Task: structure prediction
Amino acid sequence: MHDTPTRPSRRHRARTAPALLAATAMGLALVPALSTAAQAETTAVSVPGTFNSENGCAGDWSTDCAQAQLTARTDGSGAWSKTFSLPAGSYSYKAAINKSWAENYGAKAQHFGADIPLHVPAGGKNVTFVYDPVTHWITDDITSKIVTAGGSFQSEIGCAADWAPDCLKSWLKDIDGDGIYTWSTESIPAGTHTVKAAIGQSWSESYGQGGSPAGADISFTVPETGSTVDFRYNSTTHVLSVQTEEPPGPALDGTLGALYTPTETTFRIWSPDNSQVSVTVGGQSYSLQPADVSGYTDVYQVVVPGDWKNQPYQFRVGNNTVRDPYARMVKPGTTEGIVMDTESITPTGGWAPRPAITKREDAVIYEMNVRSFTIDPSSGVDASKRGKFAGLTQTGTTHNGAKTGIDHLKELGVTHVQLLPSYDFNSTVPNWGYDPLNFNVPEEQFSQFTAPEDRVREFQTMVDEFHKNGIRVIMDVVYNHTANKDVFQNITGKYYHQTDLSGTGNSIDDSNPMVSRMIMDSLKYWVDTYNIDGFRFDLVGVHQYKNVDQWAKYLQSSFPDRMLQIHGEPWSGGVDDPQQAQKVRYGTTPALAGGHVGVFNGSYRDAIKGGTRDQILGYMGGSSSNASSIALGMRGSPLATKRTTPLSDPWAPAFAYDPEQTINYVSAHDDLNIWDKITYSGITGGPTGRAGQMNRFAAGMVLTSQGIPFFHEGDEFLHSKVVNGDYEAAKNSYESGDNVNAIQWGEKAANSGIFTYYKDAIALRKNTPALRLDTWDAVKNQMATSTNGPIVTSAISSNPAAPTTADTVVVYNPTNSTSNVTLPAGTWKKVLGTNGATDSTSTTADALAVTVFKKF
Result:
């Protein structure tokens, strides 16, 4: 049975973007491209506090006093430090960047965080302050220790010499204040090395094997250059431990779970805390023994002779029955897995070719729920297939003469569908399914079948039929948490964060290498077995950005012909994360460019529509105050300076190294959809009046901005989740009934003008290369953007050889009046106006509309 969980509000809304582009008063005559405000580089770090006056400053809390400034270190660490002589007393301080309070960090590396207390003992003391610009940790050697890993490898990671305790390239940090200091690196070359923990940047206090003062060197082996090496120093026991992990890549000895052959099945599970591990299959229990599996640690294994295909099995750790985190099929309602030979299962007739795509910016993504899309009889889908995987791809369906289902998607012109969670979840439908149980198993409530192989083939066939109809398939994956801690807790608590980062009480901790490996293996399994074309990560901000980068690069290199689409939400569940600098945020998105990872652009979303659950309208409501933010989003939110290193501001709205890294949207399954937001805000007039015009305006901006456009099912014909005036349910309808979430296909005919607009705007995007620039340089060189009060205009060249010769002009006009546009020389036509496609020589930008002109 599935239990419906009590679920809190699911999202932390991204911060509203500040104005970054300067407005110009030059009218609508086109001007050179606006440059975004330069990304602030760290040129100075100070420690303003209550001791500044004792140090010779004119007063306390002085950010620009010379005596409060730290010095940039020359050891290659990027850190800043300085030693001050302070008298005895109790003080407090913070770190200020560039001699201003505009950017400052306090306790636990928090932006605008709490003051850090400092207690200098009697007689006074020389106090050393150290700041790390990557994590933003500011500390002193009284409040915490300055711990370095001094060893034989330091010169090879960039220190001036080996055994250099004062080189902060190997600095261990205790940001959360729990007394455990850590450092992780991939820079130590393969080989055997030695290390000790040095305290206070000298060897006067050091700890070797077993935490012994000045003890024997600690030896460790790096198996392969590029391997991750994790250092961990316990300040209570003084033990320095070193753990190594091979770079991600295919395991030489297979993976975990139940590995089938006709003559034997190998059962494997990770059990780092308990050696009493067994599996029951065929009514007999078998003990598992430690196994050396390449790429994995603490694995237990047993090989059971016989043909166990499609048979149930049950792992046990200690006295607890536990589920197999790698199970490919399960017995519904239990923790039993099913032995599967998925390598031998394919859709009937084999796999069809995947739809071709040249670049990720060509994508138009349509988010949908398996049940909601076809469960209503108006879908025209056969009763047995409604709300099922098979229902999504039944062709030939109509309602009152209008195409429905997959034929509707083809008519609309989308390139990708994004399926809300479709693997085994805990809740009963209707529910969105953001409570995972088994990451590798298709959800049985969406299946017509009970036989394991039939369920696998059904999901494969759904993907294959989408492909045959020219549409790629993205899966919404929820690796940031599970339905509850019982899912994995009885295997080991190491699956879970101590801090609730997802807002659900059971956040997955991918900082553990084996948890990270499980996620990577799961992703690969879906691409390999089910031909999935990409992933949308729920709350990807819970995950370490370096892990996400590894997962993505591994997938892209393993399937180089797939052009996989990978993106996610760059925030956590509305909680403070002491490790924020290590997680996926706008500010770390540039570091994900190599794996082609993008993020949902909440800053642009908010600039366009205002709040997600309130009655405040943004630019689409006529606001002139945020035109500069609109201009930035229109350009694909490009970095001010091209770089692939993290930014100092985790919420910087100018974050994209490449346009493919911004997912532009105004509506998704969370919060009020775009139509309900408009009506909730008091806008009237219906589909043909101001409300409908505002919907088209918002959609037009999404579809004409650089980046990847995304919209939610039903937006294209004004689907509403408001029933009997209940907007509160519509704000978070994850467990609402079909009367709220199900697509009512009669809305398509009733709002045919809206549908026509979406279809026309999508077709225009596909036929206009200037709307799909694919590099940071192309946006910089080929796109000239100007603002005139609230009106934003871009002149774009699709030809890099003639970057200033525009062939497309896009105008965003949120006002109630039309405006004349001064176009460059040549023959131009107006091709998109307030109602969709047009063919006119007019040079007028429509009111409350996106207007597009093309040169012929």
Remarks:
- The first helix runs from residue 370 to 374.
- Confidence is low (pLDDT under 50) at residues 1-39, 248-252.
- The radius of gyration is 29 Å.
- The first strand starts at residue 45 and ends at 46.
